[in-house]
Amino acid sequence: xxxxxxxxxxxxxxxxxxxxxxTPHLRRDYEFHSALGGEEALTLLxxxxxxxxxxxxMRMPGMDGAKFLHAVAQRYPNTTRIxxxxxxxxxxxxxxxxxxxxxxxxxxxxPPHELKAAIxxxxxxxxxxxxxxxxxxxxxxxxxxxxxxxxxxxxxxAFGRAGRLKRLALEFATDLGRAEYWQLEAAAxxxxxxxxxxxxxxxxxxxxxARLTPEEKSLLxxxxxxxxxxxxxxxxxxxxxxxxxxxxxxxxxQAKLPEDIGLGARILALVxxxxxxxxxxxxxxxxxxxxxxxxxxxxxxLLELLAGRVGGxxxxxxxxxxxxxxxxxxxxxxxxxxxxSGVLIVPHGFEISLSFLERMRNFAPNVLNEPVKVAIxxxxxx
Length: 382
Prior knowledge:
By secondary structure, the protein is of the alpha/beta class. The protein contains 17 helices and 10 strands. The chain has a 5-stranded parallel sheet with strand order 2-1-3-4-5, sandwiched between helices. It has a 3-stranded antiparallel sheet with strand order 6-10-7, with no helix packed on it. The protein has a two-stranded antiparallel sheet with strand order 8-9. A hairpin with a 5-residue loop joins β8 and β9. α3 (65-75) packs parallel to α4 and α10 packs antiparallel against α11. The two termini are 22 Å apart.
C-alpha cells in the first residue's frame, strides 16, 4: 500500500540492467521501488511498508523467487504477488505457485505491455482484497464488541476482563509498530468466550485464584473446547482461532506460525497470564518476576517490553475520581463496581460502552453515587 496517490510497486531481480529498463515504463503510474534480491527486498519492505504488487524473478542467488514470495505472503498477505521467470522447469514453477501463492506467472522475455497489464490487474486485485478486509474488519470487530458488551452484563468478571485484555494487548502491538492489528483485538475479546459454560461463582473463584475442587477443575478444562465449538462455525475466523489455539504453546512454537498469527499469540499469551496474576493480587513487579521464571513460555522481547511498561501503562491517560453516574463512553474503570450486597456488576479495567451506559440507568441511586476511579484517554489531535 502506498502513502501517496500512486499504488506501491516493488520489482525484484538480480539483474540490475533489467530493473533499470523497467523504471521508465512503470515510474509514471506507480510508486516504483526495486531490489537486487529477496533479502534486500524484505529489508526494503520493512522500511517502506507493504506494496500493492510485488513482481519477482524466480532464479536469484541466495533466496529464490519462490522463497521470497512465500515470505511476502507470510508477512504481507494482502500484497499481490507476480512471478517473472525464464526458467522453463515445471517443478520450479509449481513450487513457486504453491509456496508463494502467486497471482500471475509470467515467462521471460515478457513484453512491457504484458507486464504492465499484469501489474494493473494485480493492483485491482489488491484493492479488492483490501476493501474486503476493511469491510470484514469493521463488521466483524463491531459485532464482536457488541457481543462482548452484552455478555459483560451476564458474566461481568470474564467479559469485563476481555476489554482489559484487548486494551493491554493493543498497547503492546502499538509499541511494536502495529497500531492496527484487528486479529489480535478480536482474539483478545473472544479469549474469554469459553467461560460462558461455567457458573458465575466458579468464574469468580478462577479469577480470584481460589482452590478448586476436582469437579471444578474438570469444568475449567472444557473452557477452550467450548470456545472452539462456539466459534468454529463462523466464517473468516480461521486466523483468530489459530491464535487462540496457540496460546498454550511455547513461544518458539508460536513463532513458527504465520507472522500475524504467531505474534498475536505471543502477545496475548503474555497479557493473559500477566493480567491473571495481577487480578489475583500480585503486585506488577511480582507478576513480572513470576513470568520471567517461566523461561521459554514467553517471547523474551515481549517480556522486556512488559518490564519497561510496568507501572507506566496509563501514563498517557488522565486519572480522575468521580461518581459512577458521571462516567462517559470510552472511559476505563480502575475500580470494581459492586452492589450494596457485594455482587460484582462490572470489574476494573472495563471500558465504558453504550450498552453499559444504557444498563446503568437501572442501577440503584447509592451505586450511581459511589465514587470510582477512571482513566480518560487523551483527546486525539490532527
